[in-house]
């Protein structure tokens, strides 16, 4: 078994090789469809459960790990979709947060606008 440095190096190599192999399939449309598919898998975790308490106090660690994986899949496809569209998603999200704050000023907030 190699050192943790070797493992980390090989892990990075695998990630880079995989990215190269997948590049040909990563058109905007394909990534969008993959993203929607993963949102479906994420929804299945909550399906039929009824309301779920914040912090998921009643969930097992396996359930939480599964949720982490599906959330990560959604995030990774979202980031890749923005990337192949040539967009800076980080900057776009910051701009959108500022826009939201202007659209919904705190003083004028009503129950309806916070839903
Ligand atoms: N062409 C591909 C294939 C996969 N992935 C990445 C993004 C996701 O993080 C993960 C998705 O892999 P799977 O399609 O195997 O989906 P799951 O991990 O959800 O597996 P399963 O559907 O068996 O639960 O791999 C990718 O970027 N491009």
UniProtKB/TrEMBL annotation:
Q: Could you mention a single GO BP entry for this protein? A: DNA protection
Enzyme Commission code(s) on record: 3.6.1.12
Superkingdom classification of source: Eukaryota
The answer on whether this UniProt entry bears the keyword ATP-binding reads no
Q: Which UniProt keywords apply?
A: Cytoplasm, Hydrolase, Magnesium, Metal-binding
Compartments, as annotated in UniProt: Cytoplasm, Cytosol
Mind telling me which Pfam families this protein's record contains?
MazG-like (PF12643)
Presence of the UniProt keyword Ion transport in the record: no
InterPro entries found in the cross-reference section: DCTPP
Predominant place of localization: cytoplasm
Q: Name one GO cellular component term.
A: cytosol
What's this protein's function?
Answer: Hydrolyzes deoxynucleoside triphosphates (dNTPs) to the corresponding nucleoside monophosphates. Has a strong preference for dCTP and its analogs including 5-iodo-dCTP and 5-methyl-dCTP for which it may even have a higher efficiency. May protect DNA or RNA against the incorporation of these genotoxic nucleotide analogs through their catabolism.
Q: What is this protein called?
A: dCTP pyrophosphatase 1
Identify the species of origin. Answer: Pyrus ussuriensis x Pyrus communis
């Amino acid at each position: 078994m190699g050192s943790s440095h070797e493992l980390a190096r090989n892990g990075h190599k695998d990630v880079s090789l995989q990215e190269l192999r997948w590049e040909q399939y990563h058109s905007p449309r394909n990534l969008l469809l993959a993203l929607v598919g993963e949102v479906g898998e994420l929804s299945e975790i909550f399906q039929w459960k009824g309301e779920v308490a914040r912090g998921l106090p009643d969930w097992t660690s396996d359930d939480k790990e599964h949720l982490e994986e599906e959330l990560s899949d959604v995030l990774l496809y979202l980031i890749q979709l923005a990337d192949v569209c040539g967009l800076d998603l980080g900057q776009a999200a910051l701009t959108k947060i500022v826009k939201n704050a202007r659209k919904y000023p705190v003083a004028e907030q009503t129950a309806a606008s916070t839903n």
